[in-house]
Amino acid sequence: MVADPLLDRLIDSRYEVVERVARGGMATVYKARDRRLDRVVALKLMHPHLADSPDFVARFRREARAAARLSNPGVVAVYDQGSIDGVAYLVMEFVDGTNLRDLLEAGPVSVKEALGLTAQILRPLAAAHRAGLVHRDIKPENVLLPADGSVAKVADFGLARAVTEVTQTTTGNVLGTVAYLAPELMTTGSSTPRADVYSVGIILFELLTGHQPFTADSPIQIAFQNVHEDVPAPSTRVPDMPAEVDRLVAQMTARDPQARLEDGDTALTRLRQVAASLSDAELAVHLGGGTGTVAAQEVLAANAAAASAAVSATPATAQEAAAPHAGLRTVSVPIGSIGPGPADGVTTMLPRGQAPQADGNETVVLSPLPRFLSRRALLVGAGVVLLGGGATTWYFTMGPGRTVTVPDTTGMSEDQAREVVQAVRLTWGPVTKAFSDTVPEGAVISTEPGAGSGAQVGSEVSATISRGIEKKIVPDLTNMTQAQAAQALEDAGLSLGAVTQEYSPTVKEGLVASSSPAAGASIDHSSAVAIVVSKGRQPARVPEVKGKTLQEATAMLTAAGLKVGATTEEYSDTVESGKVVSSDPEAGSGGHYAGEEVSLKLSKGPEMVTVPNVTGKSRDEAVSALEAAGLKADVSNVLGGLIDSVRSTDPEAGTSVRKGSTVKVSVW
Hints:
alpha+beta; Phosphorylase Kinase, domain 1; 6 domains
């Protein structure tokens, strides 16, 4: 076995690594000594292969920041952070003891012990919620039970984020242990303090019953049950469970987040109300009659004062500290040392003063039989035992008590699955229907008991049949803001997809112009809806089209996002006939938008007039006639113009000339 190279190493000239404590999927935890402050600490080192992942590095840093924001005895403190050869590490409070998972493996605890442990989890969570943090990964492995009997501590705030940052996951991935995840975390990714309350409610159920509420062959099946099934009442597994405890679990684990207790403070207050309303007999209710191992009893005894203080919201009194088992020795129980006893539901009694063997094995001493038992009595007893054993063997191997394996009917039609189940002498039970993204409509998603489980002949197998992929209708998002559109999609069970921006002639800037798929479309619930957000009306500038043909001007205006409006014609001495004389609005003017119309004036060429016949008219009459025709007169007198009669014009009468042209007039 290769030695750990970090052992005995001095980190940052301060932390001397003593031993490796645990190794997880993200980091390895070492016990170390802080030479500067002369104290034992825990050094949490990220696995080197994760050092290049920004997500994991961010989670490490987030854990340090989250713990730094909280000052609570129920939170594992983070003292320092740094890096070794480019690999991030945290220096944390070292908690000498076990965790809640190890305690749960010993079996259920009493109502009083369960409420006490749960209250200790809710107190630091309430502080986190008040600080605006959501833990997001509450599970028994993250609840540490110090061996000195001090308050339980919540660890691993690596997934914690500010409430404003976790209304939805950024990548669609959901981190955490699936059995304890709130339904909304798996369906929408949204996370609030209510999600932490759900996780603690599952832990409370497990403390009371010894089992998680949902079990299956794969995590995806457990997730499916979390989303589609209510957590059963603890009284369904513990007959004498008080109704108030059932209601508390239901309020903490409601599938609808709005129906759930809203945060750690609210849940803790409700728990204390329940504890105060229960009698001593109700607080003592316990499935199995006792905790499974001596080690578990010692852990609970050490924690009794802290549990009492957490439930009562006051420091533990001397009387509370002297609870059952209070006289037992407080020990440090290594992780994994707490396990089931010799047999489920059986408490092994040891003689006063006798301790378990050092190797963990028990020595059972059988007293000799009383002398008054005769040989005949022994023979009769042996016969009874043999007969009973034979009957028992027949009952469980060939008779109605025989156990068969539940067949795997996943993906089969209901008729096929019924035949397969009945073929192994099991009874086809009630059918429920649920949506599934992976199992075709009409096929079996799962059965209860699950495939591969053992079931007595004739027992009932119920099935969940697929309704196919759940469909949702795209809502009309037009004229909403982006935030309003995202909320409308979330309310409709859909998610927001790509967001693009485009100009719109009809929708105001900042509002949704369209969606894809369009409003009213029926799509898979897991589909994302893309939206186009309006940039408002597109600005446009009128191009210079003077001197262009109508076709050329139309192309230029279209390219600029404008339209050709009314066209008129006028005479022009400067612009060739058929070409643009001017535009309205004028070229280069601003303040216009795409889609507006531009009016054009087209040239008819120069205006032509006919030179009138003014021969024989007086000088003044000729000039007036020419000017009336739009011409100019250039008069020249012959012989002084004594006769005052027009002799001729140049151009001569009847000639077509441009309007405004000059006509030479000769006057006698």
